Structure formats: C-alpha cells, structure tokens
What we know:
Elements: H1 7-27, H2 36-54, E1 57-60, E2 63-65, H3 70-96, H4 104-129, H5 134-163, H6 169-175, H7 180-201, H8 211-216
Antiparallel strand pairs: 1-2
Helix pairs in contact: 1-3, 1-4, 2-3, 3-4, 3-5, 4-5, 5-7
Amino acid sequence: MAQTLGLPTLIAGWIGLAFMLAWSIKTAPWYKLQNKTAQHVWLAMSVVIFSLWQLEASIHQGVSLHLLLVTLLTMMFGVQFAFFAVLLALLGVVWQQQLGWQAYAINALLMGIIPILVSWGLYRLGAKFLAANFFVYLLYNGFFTATLSMVAVMALSALVLSVNDILNGAQLIKDFVIYIPLMATPEGVLSTFLLMMLIFLKPEWVMTFYEDKYFNNKS
Length: 219
C-alpha cells in the first residue's frame, strides 16, 4: 500500500507518530514496569494483537480488513502502554508479512493512535457522566467504545484511500464503506466478551476497572 500512498500522507503519518511517541515516552507511568506480572501481561497482549492482525481479509490490492482490539488494550493499560503494544505488534506484522516500512507510521496512526484516543476520550466521558455500574462499564467501554473506535478508524481510512486516489467514490462504497458495520459490530462483541472475562478472572489486569467503584458503588 505504501507505493500507492502520496508523500504528504506518508509524511503526515510519521509526524503524527513522532509526536505521539515523544508524548508517550515522556508521560508513561514507567514505574509499572517494576511489576513482573504487568510486564508479562503487556507482552502477552502484544503477541495476541500481533496474531489477531494476521487474520485479515483483502478487499482491494494493498487494502485489507481485520479486527483491532485496541479499545481492550486501552482499557487494560491506558493510553501510553496501549500505544507501545500497538507499535510492537505492528513491527511484527510488517516483518512477518514483509511489508514496506514507508507506511508503518500511517498504519500506526490509523490502527493505533486514532482508536486509542477515541477509546480513552469516550472512557473519560463515561467515567464522568455515567453511573458507576458494572454493566454500564462493560457495555459502554466494551461494546459502544470499541464499536465507535472501529467506525472512526474505517472512516478515516476511507478518507486516506480517497485522498490518495486508491479507491474512487463508487469503489469506496462498494468495496469499503459497506464493511464498516460488518467490522464494527464484531469488534464491539469480541471486546465486550474479552473485557468481561478479564474482569471476572483477573480484574487487576484492567487498569480502568475499580472493583469497589463498579461492584460496590464506592467512589
């Protein structure tokens, strides 16, 4: 896909990646890496994301679709470490599939930065305005947030494809836009299921979930 993207798009991707990387390195809660279990969980989830991203469906030359699970990463680790996990997983995908490195940054922007920021923004809104209830947390941060994040990713991807003349208007509707609900719904369902399993089995692995708050309604 790198060969078909315009230079301004590639440069914009690298600029966005550089800013996000610099901010994440500066603000990340590095003290959490002192916890060996946290390290192992983060690495394991990076491998899970890498493996999931191998399961893709090609819809056009250089254009493929796959689930993300980036909202789940964000709920588990917060913005910075979710971003680092995406970078690591994407490195593995590029190496494994022998893809060009030119489009690494724009892919990191679309598949990582955008869904992470959307997910975190929606999480903060929900934490402020919604009831502190387990089911509200699960459905909002699992299904609604993951679904909307996927919609945002695919909408911006469609814009990138259109601006770079990879797909014209008719092709976008026929070969891309129609897949948005088909991708967004499974993304929400899978994220909800996995988030629920983690909360029941290992709630301490989900950074944004507080048992006293969501089970016992304690602030």
